[in-house]
Design a protein that fits this description.
4 copies of one chain form a homotetramer. The first copy, chain A, is of the alpha/beta class. Chain A has 11 helices and 25 strands. Helix content of chain A is about 25%, strand content about 25%. The relative contact order of chain A is 0.12. The interface of B and D includes residues 67, 489 and 490 of B. Chains A, B, C, D: InterPro entries: GH, GH39_cat, Glyco_hydro_39, Glycosyl_Hydrolase_39.
């Protein structure tokens, strides 16, 4: 029995919902994408969204042409506006990532992904700077300076990997960063620019980045890196499998920037984990499972102690880095599949969104908070075995003694596990239909609904005893509400069918 | 183990959803009403809707005035049009009930209900006939003759009760019927008129009605009566309790018109039960319970053998015969409460709407049908004790052997009982809040969601064994679908976390 | 030519949209009402809404009952919550009017209106005070104290008229006011209570009210009265005609409270004109005309100098004081008819809603404002002859020299007059169909659309010359926007069909 | 004065709205696209929609992979289903075009358009046939055979042009056609297959196609070609200008297939013009003009006499063949711009959609029809000068004597010309903003609204005289409705302001 204190130890940080990842930014033109994001915003409410490709060819921004014998450039924002207007309508702000290279401005032909993002440095740093300035100036004109000052601007993506930046050339990146940062500040000195958006395992780039910023007096308003826990890819057709490190490894990765930058000029700037997940592959089925939600739960509960944001990569399976998915469930990153089937990780986030602002307790299998109106909310999760050597315990018991100001308490519980709230399990039972028809989609939507239970519990000594049994890989949200009983004195269930009153 | 035959014995009649009842017709102007009806139509899809008050003052149809010294009448359809346009938009047709009396046309001042419907004969049968003709002519002009010919037109409501027709005067009713039927046919001979809309226990009125129709050659296109099973009201503040007869009693009441009219000119006309329910009181909590759904299930399964329609009274708690309800749950007739909380009886109807057209089997605790696409659907219900002497068995087991054309079957089950899919239970646990706030309403909407389970079952000998355990007062829908397995050969759950393939 | 100054003389007061009137409050349960209010809020955006009947029987609040031999009272908020939740959803707050009397609490049987609001004093002032306190306590519980403190609470309606308050008994009103005001303050001292909500022509009640408040130290947080300009009713069937005083008469009526209360304790409290219109009859066709918009335009332009609000009575024709309307256009108060046909007065309000916050100029036929982004907006109106002796000039010319910061200006004009933006004219041409069908409604919606014109004008000396000709009874909105020309050098209309470039 | 006969000469063919074109099919995943199509379907209601790219890489259908050392192919319909489900929801059916080549199945690397559709023959005709069969089988499984039998299946696009089919190789096309047609018929013999989808000026391909079909007994269920009237492109940056042939030239092009195929086996098969427009360039500003609507009006009025369908290329500016548009108005093919601004050609189609089924008269500047309810509708257009040598007459007068069965007629007119209903004119006056902000978009939506006028006209001798003056490049819709006058005897406008009655 864990006794939860009646007074909060502080606020639950909002870092877990500060930002979320998205497939390349032009996918935001899609209806399925927008439908998914609308659902996410209704149930979760992320503040920012970050994705690749803002300056890639698909967005049509950089448009050279000839007129009267001279080469000129038109900067065009037809799709940028459609995307950002949609974000505004959906109540989410962009966490801008500047990249990749427009092919007509690129110095080489190397591309990344099925959709061919060019990853080479600009042919002309002057033209790149013009492009950056034109883009930000347009955004400021359209959205207002006060607004755009709240949008972080990150320079490039994972330049430490050869796939994402030709030759993983640190010097070339620092040059690009410097040119970009100055271009940003030329538009407005209060715009927020940062980097280096590195992948896991390259923290030495942080040191170089800090040194460079100091030596050259380059503006850095925030520092960013990514975090993943998966091992090497074991490919199967249209998919991969991978081993996973324990979830704590994510928290360790979150912690390194602040540790590493201590004593540098960047010691105090915000740290954003601009991508995190278990597997970095968009076709690893682990993303679709109840295991995945239970695995990530402690990360969401604790990550905010370490960084200013950690951004789940990504909110939707509408994502085409490895091509168009060939099956509804395909191991995509999404909290949602195409067609808005909610995965267990979606529920994890939706449950987090229902936690209160005041932190009462936090343990290895639970998080307890309180709302201003007195409701106490518990997020609990079953322990998992990421090694895969055991299936995880089939039952996990957790007893909490929760403070509550009333004589009776109403308890509402929502659960997601291997059986309930688990559309993937239902989908497998249906025969794993790659292109489900309307009826099958309806079944899956229904299957994704968590199971709900309700009960009245007595309050004793200002607290209620909550005895929870979790199923394998279950995450569960419990809301305990003070009861004010309005049932009239004549209420008597024994009389329902005309029987004698008590 | 019940072996369900592979070949249908016939079609499942649609009488159960031919018609539904509504509070007085001007309530259809309300938004909560329309929101509720939209939900009902999405999930159930009734064909017709019937309610009182079309000609009562609230609809503003009969409007005498003076001009140049003469009394004249304007017939006005401002609200009639708003209501019928709403019905059209919602995909439901009116089952017209002509009544009650406009107060300026009435011969007396007796009224019924909190909303004061005048229940006296017309001061002038000529003016009444003009009113009927003007109304139907307007409807034909607006909706087209083909359409209006499909709308049954019922004359008055429960004239055999003194509350509803001054003095329960049979002769006066027959006179009203005659005048009305001729007025209807004057507009168009193919319009459908009928009566006498009697309450239970007055079947001798059917005999008199048939004799009168024969003697006076009065058109009768259908016969109507009502059916209820409750005993005398045991009042409490804002509510009543009543004993109930067994549900079979409803089927017996359905059966009497055809039996009684055999050999008369009305032997072959359609029979409509234009109202039915357990209790006839709009403030009996039994309407809100899981018991009520399990109690009515066999009636829905069998009623269509006996009559052309039986119309649940009513689809929504938006109903004011006893005044404005003072509490969210208050024992209203509705399938839905105000604010669209689904009651167990709502789920019963929604489950029926998912049954297939082909009838495979029917028993005392189950109904089995098949869809053209091969899906087999089972509606099962736990037996209830309407005497209230026992609480009903806490568990009920049912084993069915179901024909299915595939090697594997996908089984999807939705259940509603005392705990799950039961917002009333949750509401009581919350302290019976009379005016729930937005958060409480959200909890109740969630609590009203049935519990869902999914599994894969093997098919042997062209059939699947379904072993169901029902909880107390449970109704459950099971859908069994042939599985075509698309999972690829490389699918292997053991590899999810990077483990070795099998 | 009127030269409009480049610098604002101040802010345009928002009194014109502080509040709007509504038919009795339970009509807010209707869908047509809510659809209309949604449109109004989208295009106009009133802050508050005020109507009769909050405590009348139709809302079902006051519910006496017996239990264990004792009479008790249940206060019930089923419909109050539905109405106020709808207002909240629609972004408008209630301007609460406490009245009329629940019939079971009334001391007499006198009623007002077709819907029979009881206008007699309470049988028990103690029970009335309990009712007031229970209602406000419920509202505070549900909506929060901060919110409810922003809702004005007005005691009764037009107690100086015998129709609205038995005997127009001043003493009885002051007693009611006193009891009510103290009950309100008992709930929370910062709730805002006021009165006496008098009809025009009874300003001596203001003197008595102020004296009484002073003598008895009764809280008065605001003072309210009504203003209308129509003469005696000349009835026709389903309608009336009336003479009208000039519109300035409304401004004179607005001005009297502050003048009269100078030197009293109420000298500084806000003054709300809680109802105003030309005719006080809900069936005077003048409300539906272009004349009416042009007549009221100067009142909207100037009224805010005199009072804190002046509330148009009412936003919609969904209004039943004289019974259910018998025709789409029937002279109702509404800015909108049933089915949301916009009347000219609707456009007047919608035009006002597009004026900027900075007041540049105001004249007898125009109002000029500027938005923060530099747009200059002009509301202009043709002079009318309210005596009806002349039809009003067929053309009216207005020349304005408007300051604008650019080299070119884009001019956008919307107009409503006897022909354009005038559904009533189209409706008459269609034959005045009382119950228009769907096609006719579509024509009327289209006919209600203002006519729009656009042009580019040169700017000279920092200003643009706007030469407007208004048609009879026209109101027109002109928006002048600085142009930044982005047309490329190769743009050349002569080449559209392959012709030679210039 | 043209006297229009009272009796129809026949039905107005629906060929004008049988089909509409779209940018490449995966654009249908976009929200702007679906919003536009929803509007088009509401106002126009096309039956079918045709676009390129169903089998191109962007749709992700053809997906080779290796498993256990063998190359295999997965056919995947993730996006096909999303697109066709959207079409179904929007009430439009696909006119399937089979192409272009999946790059992994292609025999070469030649591509067309910015989005790089591969235009080379398949590397393996067997695999192509498998792809075709798998696709159609999937569609039949999902949508039902009855439904898919109504979907025309066209083989490739403009194979007579080297841009669209490597080498414009006739023999290779006939081979592809043959393989495809047999593959289609293998799925179901009643599926409808056709070609050769040629561009203008290649009618000899029709002869070869017919001979080949006859010689090899290849199924051909319909014949298709395209029609355009523009001359050579005169490029400017981000646009082109072109000369245009007179609109009659389109009708001539429509007529050739039937003429040419007379006497062949294809003489009786349906002829579909699967693309038509004035200019074939997606960046010719003529598409955005009032001229364009007036130019096409006679084609819509007469085209149905010559072919079974003629499909406007395309419904929306969401179209990327020449890259992402850099400006809101850019000369796109669309009836709608991005963001759903209606162009004059949109109104032409919307006006056509309001014409009646019975054809009364047709002239060089007008089309007259009647609805079953007696409404007479006139589409009139001003003559244009496509040579561009004159601007077209500034006024055009048309007098029609229209039969109408009533004593009075209600006349409703909607007009679009150089000033009214013309967002492009307003956009130019605004300074041609390439990326309009929300306010500017609202202005443009408003500016796109046609001007409306209404009047009552007397009927004499069963007919009404309609005297129309059209402005330059005006298209106008006039609806003449019989009036049944319901205005009461006491209606008298002179009493509006309390004046004396007549």
């Amino acid at each position: 029995m864990i006794r939860v204190p009646a007074e909060p130890s502080g606020r639950l940080p909002e870092a877990w919902r500060h930002c979320v990842g998205t497939g390349r930014i032009d996918l935001a033109l899609r209806r399925d994408y927008q439908d998914s994001l609308a659902l996410v915003q209704r149930d979760i409410g992320f503040r920012y969204i970050r994705g690749h490709g803002l300056l890639s060819d698909g967005m049509g921004v950089y448009r050279p042409y000839e007129w009267e014998g001279t080469r000129r450039v038109r900067h065009s924002f037809t799709y940028v506006d459609q995307v950002l207007d949609a974000y505004q309508e959906l109540g989410i702000r962009p966490f801008l990532e500047l990249g990749f290279m427009p092919s007509e401005l690129a110095s080489g032909e190397q591309t990344v992904f099925w959709w061919r993002g060019n990853v080479t440095p600009p042919r002309s740093h002057r033209e790149w700077a013009e492009l950056v300035k034109a883009t930000l100036t347009h955004l400021v004109d359209r959205h207002g300076l006060d607004e755009v000052r709240t949008w972080p601007i990150e320079v490039w993506n994972e330049p430490n990997l050869t796939d994402f930046w030709a030759g993983a050339d640190l010097k070339a990146y620092l040059k690009l960063y410097e040119v970009t940062a100055h271009a940003v500040k030329e538009v407005d000195a209060a715009l927020q620019v940062g980097g280096p958006a590195i992948s896991p395992g390259a923290d030495e780039w942080l040191d170089r980045f800090a040194e460079f910023a100091e030596e050259r007096d380059v503006p850095v308003d925030f520092v960013s890196k990514h975090a993943y826990t998966s091992g090497p890819a074991q490919p199967v057709p249209f998919g991969v499998h991978q081993t996973l490190a324990p979830a704590e490894d994510l928290l360790d990765q979150f912690a390194t920037p602040r540790a590493r930058l201590k004593g540098t000029r960047l010691a105090e700037v915000p740290v954003h984990i601009t991508e995190f997940n278990s597997s970095y592959c968009p076709d690893n089925p682990v993303h679709d499972t109840a295991f995945h939600a239970a695995y990530l739960a402690p990360v969401l509960a604790r990550g905010g102690d370490l960084v200013d944001s950690f951004s789940y990569w990504t909110f939707s399976d509408m994502f085409e880095e490895a091509g168009v998915p060939t099956s509804l469930f395909h191991g995509g990153f999404g909290l949602l599949t195409h067609r808005q089937i909610r995965k267990p990780a979606y529920h994890l986030y939706a449950f987090m969104a229902r936690m209160g602002p005041d932190l009462l307790a936090r343990g290895e299998d639970h998080l307890v908070t309180r709302h201003p109106d007195g409701r106490v909310t518990v997020l609990a999760w079953a322990p998992v075995d990421p090694s895969g050597e055991t299936p995880g315990p089939s039952r996990h018991r957790l007893r909490l003694n929760l403070p509550i100001k009333s004589r009776q308490a109403f308890v509402r519980r929502s659960g997601v596990d291997e059986e309930y709230g688990n559309a993937r399990t239902a989908w497998q039972a249906m025969g794993s239909p790659r292109s489900p028809d309307a009826h099958q989609l309806a079944v899956l939507h229904e299957a994704a609904e968590p199971v709900r239970r309700h009960q009245r519990l007595p309050v004793e000594g200002g607290a209620v005893d909550l005895d929870l049994t979790l199923q394998r890989h279950e995450i569960t949200l419990v809301e305990v509400t003070p009861v004010e009983d309005e049932s009239p004195p004549w209420a008597d269930e024994r009389r329902l069918l005309g029987g004698q009153p008590r």
